[in-house]
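Hi R.,

Here's the chain you asked about this morning:
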Amino acid sequence: MRFEDRATIADLMALYCERVDEYDIDAVAELFTPDCVTDYGPGRGGRITGRAAVRERIAAGQAQFRRTHHQLGQSRVSFDPADLDRATAVTYVTASHEEWDGRQWRAHLRYLDVLAQTPARLAAGRAAGARRGDREPAGDRLGVGVPAGACRPTQLNA
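And the predicted structure, written out as tokens:
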């Protein structure tokens, strides 16, 4: 897991943002492992487990907006020297949102992911475990932001 995997991880992050912004909720859900765990923060549903629950959470969240735009910033990937099939990533995101009444605001987010190579795909998640995902709230948000923590993808077919 190294240079090629860095490119795959970058593609995974971008694919998540594309699918969310396209409102392709089923495709977003398919990026997650069946047993994923995500945390949107206490004001946005908190910790949830499982692909179906993530799908419902993302659908409810995106339904609040006419449109969104997630722009990836820097991403730092670190590989686990004890397990060549495991990595972590910290990725910064600026997400613009337009509500149905026309109000617009921007959130500054930080995605924390744990990634693991499986025989069929690269899996990403948050915090402990190759197939788990937790999100840490970002420190700064502009406008009427939601707590940082829009779900992150947890699988990409290789």
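Residues 34 and 51 are 5 Å apart (CA to CA).

Let me know if you need anything else.
M.
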